[in-house]
Give the backbone structure.
Amino acid sequence: MIRFILERNLYVMAALGVGVAIYVGVNWEALTVLQRMSGLFFIGLVMHLWEEGRFPGGFVELITEHLHFTASSRWFGEVVTAAYVLVIAFVPLFFPNVPFLAMSSMMLGIMEVVMHTAMIRMFRMKHFYSPGLVTAAFVLFPISLYTFIYVIQHDLMRPLWWLFSFLYMLFGLMIAQQVVIRASGVKYADFLKTVRAAIMTRR
């Protein structure tokens, strides 16, 4: 039963995304702006996961082809990614008075569009598209940009909190990567060397 659920984790995430959409829609007026944006961002991330993995999909295959890395289990990688999405984008919904949590997910939104665009050149793709780019550019990025502008205009973040946001986003991402990579029997340092080599050979 557990395996059945894990292998269909994207459907579980989609159901949770619908639940968040309903919650945010019903309670829109009562929520703070950061909660609203966190809710919208979570929904966007769920859409992003589906674009990368299913419609049209191909993100895993792209990494496998160009970085010569094959995960030990596709659904295990998806589950770890889903867990990271919950930590980075779902948790802030419940902490409206902790803005650095919300801004960590917004930093991820900026980074996603940069990375997906960079992949096009890095992997010398025929078309100006990498799996996940549409939702990154037209869903996650606008939400992140609006939230950044709002937070700066209303002075909601202290200088040190920006560092907390960045570290929360980065460390969570690195831990998720390491779990998937190490579970596949590959050293994380070796994987980073492969990524670096792929970048250098395409310059």
Summary: The first helix runs from residue 2 to 7.
